[in-house]
What we know:
Blueprint: H1 2-21, E1 33-51, E2 59-78, E3 85-96, E4 102-112, E5 118-148, E6 151-173, E7 178-203, E8 205-206, E9 211-230, E10 242-260, E11 265-278, E12 283-288, E13 297-302, E14 305-320
Antiparallel strand pairs: 1-2, 1-14, 2-3, 2-4, 3-5, 4-5, 5-6, 6-7, 7-9, 8-9, 9-10, 10-11, 10-12, 11-14, 12-13
Amino acid sequence: MTLKKVAFVLTTLFITNMALADNDLKEEKSTNFIVTPFVAYRYDVFKYSIPSNLFLDQKISELVWKNRILQPSLKIELEPKENQFTILGQVKYGYILKNQSKSWDHDWDHTRDITGNVISKLRSTTKSQATGNILDLSGAVGYSISLFKDSLLTFYVGYDYSDYRNKNYGSRQLVYKKRLRPFSQLFQKYYFKTHSPWVGLSVNIPLNERFTIMPTIKLYSFKHVGKGYWIYRPDLKQDPSLKNIAKGKGLGFDLDFIYKYTNNLDLTFNLETKKFKMKKKGTDQMFFNSLSPGGERIATKKLIDLSLRSSSISAGLKYKL
């Protein structure tokens, strides 16, 4: 409801702003396009866990990816101006670096002692090399007001979409210190898509004639849909082997350092971090085929936890058309 209310207010302001601006279009150009290519280095930690069949508050399995990513991107926006609307769009394409990214699959056994306490013991940890790619799309509309001299406060309503494709190669059993499959062999795939509406706030703060900093904060609401393909599990289907769905909230923070090189060209340096975490209980489904002991069926469990933490550092050239 909050996002809908903000969107309604911005739409009303947009219509009013366009009507008031009609008389000024001939005297002054009101908007300028800005194009900014970036190159970023990014580090992600994604994980989810499912519960034991008998001890529902204890996790029986947890999967973790720690990915290091090289990510070029392109951002296009209208230069924010006082009492006017702005729009922005950005596309990012990340390459998960195989030799620097890893995946872990942890499994536990649970029993009760004579006093009734639950005893958990790590049964298995499988480690793989991770690689793959990520497509991120983002769009937003904003409205700017004057905060103080030469500084603008901009409110945003936006929508992000992410298509994240993890591929695990090889496997090594760390508990028993045994290599199961060579790291040149595809072992598992886990793909997930995230849809994330958000609201945000940014302010540009000039330090002098050349340097400006611009912090931005974003609040997200997200839906996660993931599909896994466990290639060497003969008891599971491959279209997919499993599926999990989760909803939650997220928080993001950006900090831009901008150096004015010429009137039309800026050098920009960006730090970004965000965290998504499941708030409502998600679901995990495993699709068993006819070779499984219980025959063809769908086994459904509740997810215990699902989260994504992402941090990046990037540099770009900001060109005003």
